[in-house]
Amino acid sequence: MAEKQNLSVGKNMRVWIILALGLLVLGTALLSGCRGEKSNPEPANQQPESSIAAGQTAGAGDPAPQDPALQNSAAPAAPQEEPAAAQSQLSPEAANPGQQDTTPVPVSRDVTPVPQSSPPAAPEDENKPSGNGPAAGAAPAEEKTYSFKAGDYFPPFSLSGLNGNTYNSDALFAANKITLLNFWATFCGPCIREMPALEQLYQQYAEQGLGVTGIVLDSRKADTARTMAAKLGTTYPHLLDNGSFIRYIYSVPQTFLVDREGKILSTAIGARTLEQFTQMIQSHI
Question: Mean of the pLDDT values across residues 93-102?
């Protein structure tokens, strides 16, 4: 009887040991699964090198580089400054001579080279003996080069004025010691703002031999130019370009100082004040 009890107790002990070992193994497996251990963990936020090399979009913290051409096309266009020609339509009353805009207003056109030539030779007198060379004691005629550069001669012209008269360049230059030729246009605000200074200069130095002449490039606006000139109180003549100069004058205002022979002494591109115009003519008056 005692032996049967011992066998039963031993059998029960083995069962409990097997159950305990089974529970231990199961618990270890469960704990290992909860930790989620990996054999080869990857660093966080690592981007594949191939995506950046191929120019693909990278992560939010590391944007991929883009082609500069694509960046320029994708970026919103910056607001452009209003063209000077559009800004320049200002009322003469609002002009402030002390705060002039000196930036010239561009005039777009097809440009061809300025012709450089000499005037045609005068016909020979039938009563004078003919010869292959100049007459004895006669000085050789000066070869004149016509252009818009200082040192050359201003191209000759014959233009109609706003007052209906016709003006010839030879007579216009010969009538004064020096002449200021001022190219302007009705759409050019800086041109209009400098005209009172030109008028004041003309009134101050006319008796000393200064002449001032305006040449309107947009001659189709003759009525508008006439109204502007009268409103500004200018007394010097304004001529209408017949197409001879608009091909060569790139921007307005543009001013040329010419002597009585038609030679260009100096040039000025952009608006000028009374003091600047005075300095321009002072050494030639």
Answer: 45
Q: Buried b vs exposed e over 61-79: b needs ≥16 C-beta within 10 Å?
A: eeeeeeeeeeeeeeeeeee
Query: Is 224 domain-assigned?
Result: yes
Q: Is residue 257 part of a domain?
A: yes
Could you tell me the pTM of the whole model?
0.56
Q: Which domain holds residue 194?
A: 160-285
CATH of the domain at 204: 3.40.30.10
Please indicate, yes or no, if residue 241 is contained in any of the structural domains: yes
What confidence tens digit (pLDDT) does each residue in 44-93 have?
A: 444 444 333 333 333 334 444 444 443 443 444 444 444 344 333 434 44
